[in-house]
Design a protein that fits this description.
Number of domains: 1
Protein name: Ferredoxin
Strand order of the largest sheet: 1-2-5-6
Order of helices and strands: EEHEEHEE
CATH architecture: 2-Layer Sandwich
Number of strands: 6
Function: Ferredoxins are iron-sulfur proteins that transfer electrons in a wide variety of metabolic reactions.
Keywords: Electron transport, Iron, Iron-sulfur, Metal-binding, Transport
Shape: globular
Radius of gyration: 11 Å
GO molecular function, one term: iron ion binding
Largest sheet: 4 strands, antiparallel
CATH class: Alpha Beta
Length: 91
């Protein structure tokens, strides 16, 4: 994988974005549909197990777009909390 993951110890998160939001991918739910990548290609890539991992460049995307990418996931495998720890998606 030549793209840089945000946290090499926890490639699917949780990671904290510059917006203060915490994002992670539930690897047990992720089916590798790649809709998150279609919506937010700066934020995700699939690893060798076809599971979404969060890229360092996720901070270059807007939180609104990252939330849209989570909503696009057919199995709701992307979880987002705001800086206060409140669940943004899925509710």
């Amino acid at each position: 994988m030549d793209t840089k993951v945000k946290d090499s110890k926890n490639p699917s998160g949780p990671v904290t974005l510059k917006s203060g939001h915490k994002v992670w991918v539930d690897r047990n739910l992720c089916i590798g549909a790649a809709t998150c990548i279609a919506v937010a290609p700066k934020a995700y890539v699939l690893d060798e197990e076809a599971k979404a991992v969060i890229l360092e460049s996720a901070d270059e995307d807007t939180i609104e777009n990252i939330i849209e990418s989570a909503k696009a996931c057919p199995v709701a495998a992307i979880i987002i909390e705001d800086a206060q720890g409140n669940r943004v998606f899925p509710k």
